[in-house]
Amino acid sequence: MNGMLDRVGEISELFTWLGLLTGVLVLVLALVVRLFEGSWLTATATVAEIDGDLQLTWTAEDGEVYRRFLDSDERLAAGDVHEVVVHYRRGRPLHTHLDKRTHASRVLVLLGVILMAVGILGAVVQLAAVVVEG
Length: 134
Prior knowledge:
Low-confidence stretches: none
Mean pLDDT: 86
Organism: Labedella endophytica
Protein name: DUF3592 domain-containing protein
Order of helices and strands: HEEEHEEH
Largest sheet: 5 strands, antiparallel
Number of domains: 2
Strand order of the largest sheet: 3-2-1-4-5
Oligomer: single chain
Helix content: 55-70%
Shape: elongated
Structural class: alpha+beta
Number of helices: 3
Number of strands: 5
Keywords: Membrane, Transmembrane, Transmembrane helix
Radius of gyration: 24 Å
Distance between the termini: 12 Å
Transmembrane segments: 14-36, 107-132
């Protein structure tokens, strides 16, 4: 029984170190990606159907009116609404998103949190193995 608990403790220690170290690295990478994304400004855009396509029209902070058509994925996200909130970068108002953060940064944060959870779970299992072993 002690041999099995030793193995469980060793394996959980491996998961602890790998989970926590890689989780921290991925979260730092997510922070760097978010810093490179910069700040996004928001505007309310009207959605209009033109020749079967949906077009966004919004006024940026510089007072200019900008227009662009929605992609197929964005059409599904927009649904049947007449107004949506768009996020654009300062100096590049045509580079808009319907989400405040890019998919890359959200995936990195989620992956980092999952890896950290694996590391914490490994630490709990390791501690439980030590307590049971006595």
